[in-house]
Design goal:
The complex is a heterotrimer of chains A (about 250), B (about 325) and C (about 280).
Chain A: E1 4-15, E2 18-29, E3 33-37, H1 44-51, E4 61-69, E5 72-73, H2 79-85, E6 86-89, H3 101-105, H4 107-110, H5 118-131, H6 135-138, H7 151-163, E7 169-173, H8 181-194, E8 199-204, H9 207-213, E9 216-221, E10 224-230, H10 231-236, H11 241-247
Parallel strand pairs in A: 3-8, 3-9, 6-7, 7-8
Antiparallel strand pairs in A: 1-2, 1-4, 4-5, 9-10
Helix pairs in contact in A: 5-7, 7-8
Chain B: E1 3-6, E2 9-12, H1 24-80, H2 100-131, H3 136-150, H4 153-175, H5 184-208, H6 212-220, H7 225-236, H8 238-254, H9 257-262, H10 280-287, H11 294-326
Antiparallel strand pairs in B: 1-2
Helix pairs in contact in B: 1-11, 2-5, 2-8, 3-5, 4-5, 5-8, 6-7, 7-8, 8-11, 10-11
Chain C: H1 3-26, H2 28-43, H3 48-52, H4 66-96, H5 101-115, H6 118-133, H7 138-163, H8 166-174, H9 179-207, H10 234-242, H11 247-278
Helix pairs in contact in C: 2-11, 4-7, 4-9, 4-10, 5-7, 6-7, 7-9, 8-9, 9-11, 10-11
The chains are: A alpha/beta (about 250), B mainly alpha (about 325), C mainly alpha (about 280).
Chain lengths: ~250, ~325, ~280
Amino acid sequence: MESTIIKSRNFNALFGSNTVVKNVNIDIPRNRVVAVMGPSGCGKTTYLRCINRMHELIPGATSNGEMTINNENIYDMHPIFVRQKIGMVFQRPNPFPNLSIYDNVIAGYKLNGVKLPRAERDRIVEHSLTRVALWNEVKDSLNKKGSFLSGGQQQRLCIARAVAMEPEVLLFDEPTSALDPISTSTVEELFHELKVNYTLIIVTHNMQQAARVSDKTAFFYLGELVEYDETKIMFTNPKDNRTQNYITGRFS
Amino acid sequence: MDTSVEKGIVTRNDLPLRVINSTPEGIFKAKRRVKRSFRQIRTETVFRRTLTIMGLLMIILVLGILLTLIIQSLPSIKSLGLKYLWGKVWDPVQDIYGAWPFLLGTLLSSFLALIISIPFSLAVAVFLGEYFPKGWMPDFLKNAVELIAAVPSVIYGFWGLAVLVPIVRNLETHIGVEPVGVGIFSSSLILAIMIIPYAASLGRSMIQMVPSPLKEAAYGLGATRWEVIRSVVLPYTKSGLFAGILLSLGRALGETMAVTMVIGNTSLIPKNIFAPGNTMASVIANEFTEADKPVYLSALIELGLVLFLVTVVINLIGKKIIDRFTNE
Amino acid sequence: MDGKNIKYRIGKSYVAQIVTTLFAFACVIPLLFILGYIIKAGITKINWHFLVNIPKPVGEAGGGILNALVGSILIIFFASLIAIPIGILAGIYLAENGKSRLAYWCRLCVDILQGVPSIVIGIIAYFWLVKPLGSFSALSGSAALAIMMLPIVIRSTEETLKLLPSSLQEAAFALGIPFHRVIYKVIIPVGVSGILSGVMLAIARVTGETAPLLFTAFGNPYLSFNITKPMQSLPLLIFNYATSPYNDWLNLAWGASVILLLWVLLLNIFTKLITRKWKVQL
């Protein structure tokens, strides 16, 4: 029996008075990769950003309903705690341009004023970069700023930055849509390794990617969670008509 | 891979990075993290509140300025009434106060300066916005015009006093006017130079915002460059250029030092533009520290209040026009 | 089509361009003339004595502008001390809270403040600081100059921060970093060139201001380091001595004008260099 790490019950997200995510009920299992797919504007990114409470940073954005991690309601915790347990990787790689690669990886500690001994810092940097298969490529240029890295490498740097915080969940918002095919496949390989230690939730508009990397898939349409099941079932024998239409390309 | 499953948490034992939540070290780290985070949450709240206070401070500052001006003008308003503003005689020694000479002086010098400077500001705006937006020559012009605005006004005044005034005095003897040299005319000339950059830079940005399709349509119909400028660019930027002129005017009205040094500083109503006079700003600068009677001081402050209100209104109208123009 | 008519229109367009160019560059002539005259008149008056002595009483030759130099530096230093923190914080407030009601009124007030004539600010500083404390002081002059610096610093801080991509902030928030550290450790370091240029522009602007100091710092013929007492400043000295009938003092004023001009020019050039050098590539 798989244990659930994140649960949503009757969860809604709004911009002003406009409800863009309606009545979502979902159980995210631990140490699995869950893909969230759907056409543009279906609310999948909004839902993702609610999980680590980034949604409320937008003026006028609200939400209601239940969202828990390890059975604790995330709205009972201060957002800082939530975001230390749930990391996020964005669509466009966004390493801090004024920090070196080394400092970027431990940015979560450094910018928070956490003083770690040198050995500990080095260990975290090396392990995080190894986790994302970047260590060998940058170990001689740790003190340089990351602007010379390719898009794929920068994105992996951002993943390393999130991983360094030892979160329990990693959220990915269309992480490879700004990358070339080779970098995309490198990042996708990472998902298999990362799920051993973390739970991954990946929003993607690329159906093939969802089919390739995920264990379970959720299909959002017009703000509702239409179907949520094992990936194999979703793509070969979906139960809902709308899912069927989506994966056969009737609309995208 | 050395993997184990315990309480639903998968761990790799060969990589010592993953901390199991139930080890003593893990718990200690977590507790420390929590304590630190609580402290940071408090700092965060204090910071946010400080920011809001700073925002509020600006509003309080402006209100305070307005209030102080009004309160300090009250004695004069009460005892002289509103007819102070068009009183024609200013004679503090005999306790006669009338602001008209200064209002007139301000209006004359500012509008004359505006009229003189507009052709030049416009030329710079059109040159930089339309004819030569890029290149070393326009860069030079742009920097030169910005330099005009950077030179301190007291230096303009000094130069005016030493160089311009004798020239004007010469001119006045040739015309047959009383050859004082100082006066409304001299101050208008200096003001004109000083306010060129304001209308010029605003005009340039407005002109650069004219959408190319509009101009191309005119060119396509066979219009010459000048005709495109006259019939497309200028009408399109009409309100923006007007806002630039307003900004220059606001600057001219409030200018003190350069004007004070070349305007002659007399309280008589100027007979013509070559006569000496005074502006509201220059009379305040000259007589503030010598105002020995409360009503005297208060009358000067009242001038300051009028100056404040007029320049603020002009500037806000100008900014509003620009906002509407850029958000269309 | 009428051939002559077209030729006329083309000719007119050409003439218009020439006239516009002439008028445009004509603006530079008075500027060059003024700068040239001042430098010529003042450069000979500057020497080591000029810089390290205070003005001598009327009738005695020599003397210098040391009290004005020191005074200017002190007054501007304290004005910056007041204006820079408040200005940057207010700019951050406006950039982060763009749409709220308070921000709207705040922005309006900053716009108003930018247009207030400098003499009016001098009046305000007089009633807020000089009268209650009983004497003219460099501090009240600094306060007046600080009020003038605020809109410039606030404006440029707000503009700089608004130009930064929102992904920068988002990445920091997503790491669980609290708001004040996001601003202090991420946003400001990346935007430092824009903020710094705003600060330098503000300093360049108030360096040459005289009117706000007329009844606050008031001026002082002696060298003083006491900021609670009247103090001389460069523009004040120029104003007082330029309008005096004494030749020695006029000479001092010319020399001081050159110094002031160079100071303002250097600040402006320095600002442009810094902006280019410190800009972080995003």
